[in-house]
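Hello, quick one for you while I still have it in my head. A protein chain has come my way and I'm curious about its shape. I'm sending you its amino acid sequence along with the backbone structure tokens. I'd be grateful if you could look everything over and explain what you see. Here's the protein in full, and shout if anything looks odd to you:
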Amino acid sequence: MNIETKKNSNMIHPPKKSLSPWAMARRKFIKNKLALTSLLFIIFVAIVSFLAPYITTADVTKINIGQMSLEPSSEHWLGTDKAGRDVFTRLLYGGRISLLVGLSCTLFVIFLGTLIGSVAGYFGGVIDSLLMRFTDLILNLPFLVFVIVINAIFFGKVNGLWVLILVISILSWGGIARIVRSKVLAEKENEYITAAISIGCSPAKIIIKHLLPNIMSTIIVQATITFATMIVAETGLSFLGFGVPQEIPSWGNMLNSAVEPDVLQFKLWIWIPPALMITITILSINFIGEGLKDAFNPKSRR
């Protein structure tokens, strides 16, 4: 009788399907209010920045001598800069460039680092040694000096913005390559990799279909950290005058005005808005990274 009762109860209430690691990570990330709020903020900033032409009609580059350094008003919500340009408009357009540079550099860095790290970790031996010595060379190059020199050489000859993106990316993939290599070295010792090799799978297929999906969580977390780092790099270089060309508005270029004592002390509306946007954006990206790191950590799951 008890056995029949158990069978009937199992038929009425079938066992719940276990969640996949990705579903568990997604559920845990959504429960992290700080990380979720940060993600929504970044999405909002990206949407507003890329819809800037539809939000404001002010000319982002036109110099208006009669409206130089005006304080915030109903006509100019965040005032005007020392060239008479609307600060709110430049803030929106500057977000487009800063986010574009950060995202583009992140994609290049993740691609190069993942490619070189996975190949080095999988093949080992001489290939691993050569690729890691090349990675050490990249890591030891003086980042700021090389970016300034290469950007100065090609400035005016080709699109300065894309030269900056390429230079930053080429000099920044070393850390990602080392992390991916260490993960691949540990992952390739598992039995499913040995089974894939024994049935004749090609190295490219093993890396793409078996190794990379199992270390993708680490790559995603590193991508968020890299995204924040790339925005900081663009901002710092533009602030020094060696980043995004001055005619293109970016948050870093807007901060470039703060080097003047008069602007820094008495015209706070010119540099505080971009400084706040950079700070909040970087914090939000870091919170997202921490949330993803916690979500993908098996030891933190209940």
